[in-house]
Amino acid sequence: MAPFHIPFLGKDEDKLPDGVARPTWVILDVTGPYPERQPGNPLQALLNREDTLEALEARIEKLRGADWLHGVLVRISEFTASPAAAHAVRQMLARLAKDKRVVAHLPQLTMTALLAASGAQEITAPESADVLVPGFATQPTYLGAFLKKHGIEFENLRIREYKAALTRFSQDHMDEANREQLTAYLTGLETAWALDLAAARGVSEDVARAWLSGDLTSAHAAQAAGLITKVAYEDELVGPGTRPLAAVIDLLMPRRGNAKAGRVAVVSLVGTIVPGKSKNNPLPLPLLGGPQAGSDTVVAALKHAKKDDKTKAIVLYVNSGGGSALASDLIWREVATSEKPVVAVMGEYAASGGYYVLTHAKHVVASPYTLTGSIGVVSGKPVLQEFNARHGLNPEPVGNERALMYSAARPFSDDERAHVEKGISEVYDRFVSRVAEGRKLTTERVNEIGRGRIWSGLDALELGLVDELGDLRAGIERACELAGLPYDAPTWNAAPAKTGPLPEFVQEAARAAQVTVWPFGRERVLTWLDQEVKVR
After folding, report:
1. What's the pLDDT tens digit per position in 242-283?
2. Is residue 138 part of a domain?
3. Domain that holds residue 315
4. For 126, what's the count of Cα atoms within 13 Å in the CB-facing half-sphere?
5. What region holds the Peptidase S49 domain (predicted)?
6. Are 354 and 379 in contact (CB under 8 A)?
7. CA-wise closest residue to 476 among 349, 357, 311
8. Where are the beta strands (DSSP E) in 449-497?
9. Co-location of 441 and 481 in the same domain
10. CB proximity list for 21: less than 8 A, separation 6 or greater
């Protein structure tokens, strides 16, 4: 029989060796930031040019099922994903490694690239590889002094001392409570990293921790320390039977799920939680740029999944630092009243309102690297009184002063401040009761671990805020178990049912044009972690 030739590899020198019908190795490129899911909205999906974890997992599952494939060379280059996303890649490669030989090749030995690669049996790097294994850190910038210099004060009313949502605007430095929680969070990330790398490389946790302080500067030093398997250039790893993934895509048969018993819906909640419809704010604003998860849109998606006869369980994927207290509560209600089991899966963030929405899920899965918790409430406003005076601006109030309580023209009065503090205290008590009821904890315990404090997913598991450490695949498997479905049951991305005279992509385009600096409507009480904790 004549050997099978790979489609569109026309040159003779690109033919497979004699006697080899199909490639024995495939090269899989992993590069970029890797958001979790493809946007459910048609317009956002069309405009999205970033590869997703969802798409990567689909490719890896096809490679797992290719009986003609011996191994996969995974090139992890310019990898800018979060630690939570890197951990998800790790889990995918570990599943692949159960069926195939997996070798990861890293031109840059960074914290997140190594974490992603740790799912492979072997890790290689070129002799000239950059080695950057310094642990994790973050560096928020405080604007209080800058704003005050320009005549802008910031009213910051919060519950409680760890709730740092607005402190970078109201203060000129980090307070001790915030420093304490950020230090603990980063320590949790380094512990999770050491545990993951130790398990992957077959060493003790102490050895893995030593890599963070071992001053490794070269690929050879990393190999000597046991961090990587081999120092090699890519051409030394690629044989004549190796082809890039694009060249073998026609050979990869889709893995068909067992659709007879039912399916699992995945509903995504990504971005700042706001009232109304979901949209994306394209402006690079320090507070409000990026995706916004509207309560109307998320609730409609959940309702669609709940009404779908074929859907037997729902996975709520949350990557959000929260936002509107009202919008968070409306989404929470839809989860809490679902007769179908809901499993929540946390991404990079599931904090404040992002945690509120999932408290009553039947099962909660977090990455060890998820930033979660922040059970607290905040309100406030900028005060432009001095700014206005400096620039000759003179706002003149007319009517009931209470109606102008949130005006930036003046500070809160004592009576108004007491009124706002009463309101956020009521929201905080409701937040605490939601967590206590959903997580089977006492309100005293929730208040003890709440107070606005953030936790790593690793710590959240010990505290009882989550049930399991894992990724989206683990969440889907738990949903299958709760619904009595096989693990290979199909999944679908649930979005709002199609309504209205205009196509959904036209409606989305109209919403995208309605950019607003304050997306929370008239609401000023927030369950929000506004500061992105970008670790390095």
Report:
1. 999 999 988 887 766 677 789 999 999 999 999 999 988 766
2. no
3. 263-376+412-497
4. 12
5. 96-238, 337-485
6. no
7. 311
8. 454-456, 468-469, 491-493
9. yes
10. 1, 3, 4, 68
